[in-house]
C-alpha cells in the first residue's frame, strides 16, 4: 500500500472508533441514573460512619455538564474493545506470523486486565473517600460540600491508574517476546517493584487496616512475577532454539564447499608439430 492508502485506512479506522464512542456515549446517557447511584456509595459509607458530606452541583448548567462528562467516560470505556480491535486490524497486515500471535495475545490479555484494574480502582475509591472525609472536623456548623465534577475526576484518574498498573505486566511480556528485555533483568528489580506496589497502593487506598494494603499490593506484585515467569520461560525456549541453529551450522560446515562445479571442457587445441 502507498502512503496515501495507509492514511486512508487510518482515517477509516479512526472514524469507526469515533462512531463507536458516540453511539455508546448515547447509551451511557441513559445509564447515567444507575451509574450515579453507584458512585454515591462511598458517601453512604461515610454517612454511616457519622461523617457529614454532600455532593454539590454548583452552577445552573453543572448537572448537564456532569451528565455529558459521565456519558463520554462511559462511551469511551464501553468502546475500549472496539478501539483495540480497530488498532489490531490496522497493524495486522504489516506483521509477520509470529508477531501476529504476540500482538493478538497482548490485546487478548490487556483488555480483561484493564477492566479488572478499573474495577479495582472503583473499589479503591470506595475505601479512599471515607478516609479522606474523616479528616474534616465533626462539629456543629461544619458541613463539607464536594463538587461532583472534582469527585468524578478523582474517580476516573484512580480507575485509569489501576487499569494501567494491571496492564504493565503484559507490556513487560511483550517487550520480552520482542527480544528487548530479558526475564532475569526484570527479576533483578523485584525489590523495587514490590516497594513501588506497596507505595502505589498506600497512596491510592489509604485504609487504616493493613489487610487491604497487603492484599492489593500482593495482587499487583503477583502480576509482575507472572510476567517474569513467562519471560524466563520464553528466554529458555529462545536460547535452546538459537543453540540448535548454531549447532546445525558449524564453522567447518559453513566454510566447506560440498559440491565443486566442473568447468566446461574447452575445445581441444590442435597439436602443433614438434618440429617446424
UniProtKB/TrEMBL annotation:
InterPro entries: TatC (IPR002033)
Compositionally biased tracts (Basic and acidic residues): 255-276
Region (Disordered): 243-276
Bilayer-crossing regions: 12-32, 72-91, 103-125, 151-177, 189-205, 211-233
Keywords: Cell membrane, Membrane, Protein transport, Translocation, Transmembrane, Transmembrane helix, Transport
Predominant location category: membrane
Transmembrane listed as a keyword: yes
Highest taxon in the source lineage: Bacteria
UniProt KW Protein transport keyword: yes
Xref: HAMAP family: TatC
Function: Part of the twin-arginine translocation (Tat) system that transports large folded proteins containing a characteristic twin-arginine motif in their signal peptide across membranes. Together with TatB, TatC is part of a receptor directly interacting with Tat signal peptides.
Family: Belongs to the TatC family.
Subunit relationships: The Tat system comprises two distinct complexes: a TatABC complex, containing multiple copies of TatA, TatB and TatC subunits, and a separate TatA complex, containing only TatA subunits. Substrates initially bind to the TatABC complex, which probably triggers association of the separate TatA complex to form the active translocon.
Name of the protein in question: Sec-independent protein translocase protein TatC
Native species: Brachybacterium epidermidis
Gene from which this protein is expressed: tatC
Amino acid at each position: 500500500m502507498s502512503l496515501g492508502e495507509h492514511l486512508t485506512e487510518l482515517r477509516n479506522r479512526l472514524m469507526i472508533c469515533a462512531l463507536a464512542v458516540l453511539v455508546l456515549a448515547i447509551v451511557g446517557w441513559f445509564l447515567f441514573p444507575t451509574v450515579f447511584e453507584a458512585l454515591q456509595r462511598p458517601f453512604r459509607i461515610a454517612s454511616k460512619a457519622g461523617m457529614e458530606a454532600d455532593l454539590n452541583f454548583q452552577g445552573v448548567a453543572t448537572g448537564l455538564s456532569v451528565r455529558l462528562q459521565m456519558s463520554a467516560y462511559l462511551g469511551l470505556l464501553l468502546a475500549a474493545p472496539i478501539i483495540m480491535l480497530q488498532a489490531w486490524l490496522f497493524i495486522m497486515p504489516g506483521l509477520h506470523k509470529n508477531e501476529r500471535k504476540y500482538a493478538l495475545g497482548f490485546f487478548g490479555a490487556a483488555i480483561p486486565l484493564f477492566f479488572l484494574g478499573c474495577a479495582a480502582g472503583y473499589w479503591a475509591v470506595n475505601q479512599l473517600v471515607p478516609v479522606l472525609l474523616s479528616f474534616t472536623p465533626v462539629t456543629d456548623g461544619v458541613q463539607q460540600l464536594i463538587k461532583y465534577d472534582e469527585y468524578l475526576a478523582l474517580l476516573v484518574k484512580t480507575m485509569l491508574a489501576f487499569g494501567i498498573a494491571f496492564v504493565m505486566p503484559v507490556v513487560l511480556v511483550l517487550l520480552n517476546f520482542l527480544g528487548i528485555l530479558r526475564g532475569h533483568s526484570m527479576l533483578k528489580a523485584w525489590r523495587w517493584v514490590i516497594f513501588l506496589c506497596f507505595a502505589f497502593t498506600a497512596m491510592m487506598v489509604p485504609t487504616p487496616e493493613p489487610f487491604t494494603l497487603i492484599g492489593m499490593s500482593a495482587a499487583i506484585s503477583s502480576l509482575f512475577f507472572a510476567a517474569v515467569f513467562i519471560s524466563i520461560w520464553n528466554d529458555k525456549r529462545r536460547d535452546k532454539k538459537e543453540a540448535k541453529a548454531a549447532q546445525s551450522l558449524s564453522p567447518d560446515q559453513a566454510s566447506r564447499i560440498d559440491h565443486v562445479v566442473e568447468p566446461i571442457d574447452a575445445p581441444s587445441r590442435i597439436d602443433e608439430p614438434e618440429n617446424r
